[in-house]
Amino acid sequence: MTASPTTTALHAKPRAAVVRDALGVGIAVGLSGFAFGVTSAGAGMSTAQTCVLSLLVFTGASQFALVTAIGAGAAPFAAAMGALFLGARNAFYGLRLSHLLDLSPKVRPLAAQWVIDETSAVALAQPDRAAARLGFTITGVSLYLGWNITTLLGALGAAALGDPSAWGIDAAGPAAFLALLVSMARGTGSSGSWRRVRERPEPVTAAVAAALALACLPVVPAGVPVLVAALAAPAVLIVTRRRGDHS
Amino acid sequence: MIWAAIAVVAVGCYAVKLLGLSVPASVLERPLIRRLATLVPIATLAALIALQTFGEGRSLVVDARAAGLAGAGVALLLRAPFLVVVTAAVVVTAAVRALTG
């Protein structure tokens, strides 16, 4: 790795500190593949399907969304749409990382698979390009290995446990989503004092979406309530914009 | 059909990641698109939480899963790591089922 123009900063972060931060995130989150493996097997996916999802999709929220929707009886296409909605945010991480990492066209297709919440968070937190590249790579490697190994262990373990609902494993999906939701809402806005909805639309959007989904559940086919609920996002933006224009 | 859904999600999610790394910034760096990209996953996650906690087929119920989600909420308030949050939900749900079932 060559020094980039941005490494001229006087307070360059030591490589060991970058590696330590990256490994901490990569290993901690990598272990969570176990929860995915258990949930996926509990939703009725085969071990092969579960492992292929972690190897090829490799973005946790989308994986959980797909398997739990299929487990709940959603049509595979509707389940896939919900998963893709969740994956769309990675494009914006990629956008920010492409400037920061300045990858060559040859490396880009390989690096793309690792463009997820955690690698972006670590890379974007670094003070210069060399540290960002190192952080991205170490987080990517450790998380990819950990996530896939623990996915397999979780899937095999769940098969040994038998009936998933008897163990409460069906609660793992919503709990995982809640943890992701909280970290996303924390990451996108400044925390602390309450602000107007226009500046901080996340809680209102979440509440409207949840209400919409529950209201639709009895009347539309499985898998569709999530797609209807996604409309809460443009709806909240439009409403807050209009209000903003009048004030 | 499940394999087809897996293939669609795998190809779609990879394409989205590669798109972000490859397109010029001006295409995606519009305030409205950025805000939508932030809010759509939040809306989707909130809907999934509600459906998987209170949905039973096509009807709404309050059962042990709600207690499990509350357990996860407490773990989150205590700033517990991801795996602990998920484990809390599973353990509380199983415990409520064992006590009431």
TrEMBL record, chain A:
<dbReference type="GO" id="GO:1903785">
    <property type="term" value="P:L-valine transmembrane transport"/>
</dbReference>
<feature type="transmembrane region" description="Helical">
    <location>
        <begin position="22"/>
        <end position="44"/>
    </location>
</feature>
<dbReference type="InterPro" id="IPR011606">
    <property type="entry name" value="Brnchd-chn_aa_trnsp_permease"/>
</dbReference>
<comment type="similarity">
    <text>Belongs to the AzlC family.</text>
</comment>
<feature type="transmembrane region" description="Helical">
    <location>
        <begin position="134"/>
        <end position="160"/>
    </location>
</feature>
<feature type="transmembrane region" description="Helical">
    <location>
        <begin position="64"/>
        <end position="86"/>
    </location>
</feature>
<keyword id="KW-0812">Transmembrane</keyword>
<keyword id="KW-0472">Membrane</keyword>
<dbReference type="GO" id="GO:0005886">
    <property type="term" value="C:plasma membrane"/>
</dbReference>
<feature type="transmembrane region" description="Helical">
    <location>
        <begin position="166"/>
        <end position="185"/>
    </location>
</feature>
<dbReference type="Pfam" id="PF03591">
    <property type="entry name" value="AzlC"/>
</dbReference>
<keyword id="KW-1133">Transmembrane helix</keyword>
<protein>
    <recommendedName>
        <fullName>Branched-chain amino acid ABC transporter permease</fullName>
    </recommendedName>
</protein>
<feature type="transmembrane region" description="Helical">
    <location>
        <begin position="206"/>
        <end position="239"/>
    </location>
</feature>
<keyword id="KW-0813">Transport</keyword>
<keyword id="KW-1003">Cell membrane</keyword>
TrEMBL record, chain B:
<dbReference type="InterPro" id="IPR008407">
    <property type="entry name" value="Brnchd-chn_aa_trnsp_AzlD"/>
</dbReference>
<keyword id="KW-0472">Membrane</keyword>
<keyword id="KW-1133">Transmembrane helix</keyword>
<feature type="transmembrane region" description="Helical">
    <location>
        <begin position="66"/>
        <end position="96"/>
    </location>
</feature>
<feature type="transmembrane region" description="Helical">
    <location>
        <begin position="36"/>
        <end position="54"/>
    </location>
</feature>
<keyword id="KW-0812">Transmembrane</keyword>
<protein>
    <submittedName>
        <fullName>Branched-chain amino acid transporter AzlD</fullName>
    </submittedName>
</protein>
<dbReference type="Pfam" id="PF05437">
    <property type="entry name" value="AzlD"/>
</dbReference>
